[in-house]
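G.,

No rush on this.
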Amino acid sequence: MAYKPKEAPNKGLVEKIMDSVTGEAAYCIRCGEPMNKFDLEQPLCEKHYQIWVKYKDKKYKEKFCHACGQQEPNISFEKPIGRVCFNRLNK
């Protein structure tokens, strides 16, 4: 089975952020996989949301920015967007 990338390999951070803002892209904050919809109320993919909902710890440390999919140190359900993306989205 051939490897198929999930997104264009040349997309930069700004393009990923813009895709998120326009609703075209989002990433699971736990696994980093692309999601169909940018939703700050549910920034986890269905699989990981089902696990999260058992504990509902909004401060539990996650790994990936919901907006761009990059690894970030301070991501949680409560704050699913990394600092760089947050600053760009709020300009």
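When you get to it, here's the other one too:
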Amino acid sequence: MEDLETIGVLEYITVGNFLVDLKKKFSEGDNKTMKVAELKKVEWRSRTIEKFIQKFRRATRGSRYKERLLVEKFKRGMNGVIRRKLIEVERPSRSTEQWYERATNLDQHWKESRKNGEKLRERREI
């Protein structure tokens, strides 16, 4: 404080302004850390692909991850069967939006084929 007084320049008029700015600067780091931790926890589990994507998008807001890293995080949280199928394609997607779209389409096809398989089994039993 003495240095500030001798120079004659005060950046903050009140202690309250200083504390608000200090809290803002330090909470940005905490927010980033929380976003990283939240993103690591997002997994598909038994929820629908739409809910998984929605939760993933929510977790990525404010994380400041670059696109390539977001794709890697998205792949890690996905259902293993769908992830393998998406990785095995000839030209894998590079953007998260493409991954969202392809994962949604593949999940829908997978569900349809499972339903059709169940119908076939039911017919065989009759």
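The chain has a mean pLDDT of 75. The two ends are 88 Å apart (CA to CA).

Enjoy the weekend,
O.
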